[in-house]
Design goal:
This protein has 4 helices and 10 strands; from the N terminus they run αααββββββββββα. It is α+β, with helices and mostly antiparallel strands.
Length: 184
Amino acid sequence: MILNRKIILSGVVAAFAGLAAIPDSFAGSAPEAEAGAEKPAHPVAMKEDIRVAEVWARAGRRGESAYVFLTVHNDGAVPVLLKGAVSDIATEVRLVRFEMRGPYLRTSRSEPMTVPPNGTLVLDPGVVALQFWKLKRDLFASQRLRFKVDFLGIGRIDTVADVDPRGAVRYSDHSASAGAAAKH
């Protein structure tokens, strides 16, 4: 009788803790347990599967914005979310989309963007970028900009961008996927 109370009390405590652990002697036998079969674990995104390439930035003046463009390759079997970036040169780094409003090209904040499994996400001029908002100092052409690209669940990846003149335009070899990725 005392043993049954301990088992029941253990089950109640485990259920409240979210563990739902029941002793084998109480649970009985299940065909899966007898065969020793384990449920497969869900795949987890790995930082090692992510590569940031073709990184470049446009120059900018103190107090203004500069934009960084890049390509993210995901060699893993799980999608990864690009959140943005962090840097000490700007007040904030935002993931933004470009859109035409009347005759002007404007930016708006973007939700985190998916880098598909075994796929690529491209941040290209006129489509998507990392906006280094309110630069704390001038960012000149021919400098190198160090920052960390931020991914949900896997953390940050150190990255370096070559800085081009303010009006520079480069397009990646994967530009066709940029428009498609930016629409999601």
